[in-house]
Amino acid sequence: MTTNSRIFKTQEGNFDLTASVTKVGQDAVVVIFGGERPHVGAVALADPRQSLRDPEKTSATASVLCLTGHKEDAIVKSASERLAAVANRPVAVAAGIHWDHLQESDINQIMKNIDLLIEMIESYLRPSDS
User: What is the Cα 115 distance to its own chain's centre?
Assistant: First the structure.
């Protein structure tokens, strides 16, 4: 079995995040972390499938596990579904992000950074046309 790992980081200056992406055979495992106390708060596994709205498109369905009191479940569900649909392969995403005393504007920046990180990973996992 072949594995290939790569690290991605946001560089926005505030609330930066890191992701480790490992290709395991044809599948991918992504770990997103950041903050004062990185951890594993939630995990999702998404499987690509034909879109229910548009049979010409690929979508994905995810199952999520979340530790009590953690709020990464929405992040891992969305990220795993986006990545599985783009890559057209199963993708597992784990995340643990924690900063103390966040304001709403801080949370907005973290969500922007998550989106930037997922865009970088989408480019990496997208099948080449060759």
Answer: 9
110, 18 Cβ separation under 8 angstroms: no
Place of tokens 């953690």: 70
What tens digit of pLDDT does each residue of 52-79 get? 888 889 999 999 999 999 999 999 999 9
Whether the predicted model's global pTM rises above the 0.90 cut: yes
Query: What is the end-to-end Cα distance of the chain in Å, rounded?
Result: 22
Q: How far apart are CA 77 and CA 7, in angstroms?
A: 20
State the Cα–Cα distance between residues 130 and 25, nearest whole angstrom: 19
Q: Where are the alpha helices (DSSP H) in the chain?
A: 73-87, 104-125
**Cα-based torsion angle of the residue sequence 123, 46, 73, 126 in order, rounded to the nearest 10 degrees:** 0
Say how far apart CA 128 and CA 15 lie, in whole Å. 32
Report whether 13 contacts 76 (CB < 8 A).
no
